[in-house]
Structure formats: C-alpha cells, structure tokens
Amino acid sequence: MEADLLTEPYSDDRKATLARSGYIAQIREMIGKSPLLVVAAAAVITDPTGRVLLQHRSDTRDWAPPGGLMDLGESVAQLLAREVLEETGLELTGTPSLIGIYSGPGYRMTYPNGDVIQSVICSFHCPKWSGTPIRDEESLALAWFDASSLPDLHPHHRDYLQDHFEGVSGRVL
Questions:
Q1: Mind listing the pLDDT tens digit for each residue in 63-101?
Q2: Of 82, 87, 66, nearest to 20 (Cα)?
Q3: What is the reported pTM?
Q4: What is the bridge-based pairing of β-strands 52-57 and 129-130?
Q5: CA-to-CA distance for 155 and 166, rounded, in angstroms?
Q6: Among candidates 53, 82, 59, 68, which has minimal Cα distance to 123?
Q7: Residue 18 to residues 11, 82, 126, 134, 137: CA-CA distances in angstroms?
Q8: Got the DSSP string for 73-105?
C-alpha cells in the first residue's frame, strides 16, 4: 500500500521553531465541545512521478494530506505554508494551484476527543517544494501514494484527492 514510509520525527530544535497561536484552543475553552466553523487548508504535495504525500494522523488515526486549521490573523497561503512545514518539514516553493473549496454539512466531523467542527477546506496542488519530508508529533508516519494505492481516507480528503487525480481545478462545493 505505501511507499517510502517516513517515520523520523522532528528534532527538538525544529519543533521550537514552529510557533502556534493556540487560537482554536482558546475558542474551545469558551465553547466546549459545541460545533465550531473553521477554515482549513490541505496540501496535495506531489513528487515528480505524481505520487501524493500523505500523513498517518495521530489524532484520528486516518491518512490525510498535510493541512490544518487557520489561526487568527493568518491568510490561507500562510496557513498552507505553515501546516506543510509543521507536519512535513517541507517548504513550499512556487505558487500552489487551487483544486477547490469544499464546505457544507458533509464536512462536519467529530474528533476522538469529542470536539466537533464543520470545515471550509481550501485544497491546493503543491508540486514545488524543497527539503526532506520529516513527520511531527501530529503524524504517526508520512508516505508517498499513487492514485491506485491510496489508503482508506476520510470522505473529506477523498473528495479533493479524487478531484486532483481527475485534473479538476477551481471546484467550489
């Protein structure tokens, strides 16, 4: 199923350089487990052969492209670059291209800890990057997959990965 499994974690020095504002945590303190509307970005990072880099997430235990939730004061482009760096150690180069924006009740999920979110997911194809993939504490592993060997994915991730592999761009749901 997987190729080039990457399981080496970030060094303590690298973790120290990756700052997080804690905005979502602050909101959670105020609203508890109630549903929260969030903006998210997902990076469909590809290698020269067209394989995509997926992370085996430590929170939900599923496979997903690198990505995450927007912090206060952040643009979608900054969110995308930050999450890719935090979760893979890669730096995006060039300009990512929009695959689509995915929203609505179908993008609601409950995390194992009981937190409920409904996402507006902005997904981007990111073929240009530098560095060597290294996982962080949010990932059990990183691995490259081609279209025919994708692991089980949450439906949210399947939607935009399918659009990527079919060459769809600019979809708004």
A1: 999 999 999 889 999 999 999 999 999 999 989 999 999
A2: 82
A3: 0.86
A4: unpaired
A5: 16
A6: 68
A7: 11, 8, 20, 13, 12
A8: T--HHHHHHHHHHHHH--EE-S--EEEEEE-SG
Q: State the Cα torsion 128-134-140-143 to the nearest 10°.
A: 50
Which residue type sits at 55?
Answer: Q
Paired tokens of 116: 């409920």
- C-alpha distances (whole Å) from 150 to each of 2, 147, 158 are 8, 6, 9
The CA distances from residue 172 to 70, 123, 151, 161, in Å, are: 19, 10, 25, 14
The one-letter amino acid at 140: L
Half-sphere exposure of 63 (CA within 13 A, CB side): 19
Helix (H) or strand (E) holding 162: helix 155-165
DSSP state of 135: B
pLDDT tier at 59, thresholds 50, 70, 90: confident
Alpha carbons 97 and 99: distance in angstroms, whole number = 6
- Domains, the chain, with CATH or none: 3-172 (3.90.79.10)
* pLDDT value for 156: 86
